[in-house]
Design a protein that fits this description.
The chain has about 180 residues and is mainly alpha-helical. It contains 8 helices and no strands.
Length: about 180
């Protein structure tokens, strides 16, 4: 890290936000499955519990992203547009994932500027990253938590950050059903 200007990482990130932003704008959409999570959030916010159809017995668990349902619930309660909230939250998770990846290459891998920029550019311009950044599902938060789990527990050059890694892993399991695996 020595010998590199301190503004390198923020400058690279800001530069890579341009293609990432353009692609997320281009692929802006909401997948129909997101509306399932939104409905559970709405019913929970209205005091009906975690149910798709209030009054049905027994209630059916039809979502695969428990933490996302819980995260959207306060916004439903406040009357905010959860599709917009989900878009913003997912795109923000994509930005944080891009930053953490760049930081990991910069600090842990001690990558030179060119490989760091190229690696970041590949991530920022991957169509699946842009598509799932606006899908309305917990895909980008899941990807971020997956990377943070790796970074904190395995990717540290000095010693693992067990508490931070444990929190990231716990949230990963709650974020998507497959997080356990």
């Amino acid at each position: 890290m020595s010998g590199r200007p301190p503004y390198l990482l923020p400058l690279v990130l800001l530069t890579l936000l341009i293609p990432y932003g353009l692609l997320t704008y281009q692929f802006n959409w909401i997948i129909d499955d997101a509306y399932i999570s939104f409905r559970y959030s709405k019913n929970l916010a209205q005091g009906e519990g975690l149910t798709y159809n209030p009054g049905s017995d027994p209630p059916v668990e039809g979502y695969s992203d428990f933490l996302w349902v819980l995260a959207m619930t306060p916004f439903e309660y406040l009357g905010w547009n959860v599709m917009t909230v989900a878009h913003v939250a997912s795109v923000l998770c994509g930005v944080i994932l891009l930053y953490r990846t760049l930081r990991f290459m910069h600090v842990e891998l001690r990558a030179d500027t060119a490989p760091m920029v190229l690696g970041g550019l590949i991530l920022a311009m991957l169509p699946p990253i842009a598509v799932w950044s606006t899908s309305g599902l917990a895909t980008m938060p899941f990807a971020l938590l997956f990377f943070l789990s790796y970074e904190f527990l395995i990717g540290q050059s000095t010693s693992p950050r067990v508490v931070a890694g444990g929190i990231a892993l716990s949230l990963l399991v709650l974020a998507r059903a497959e997080g356990l695996f």
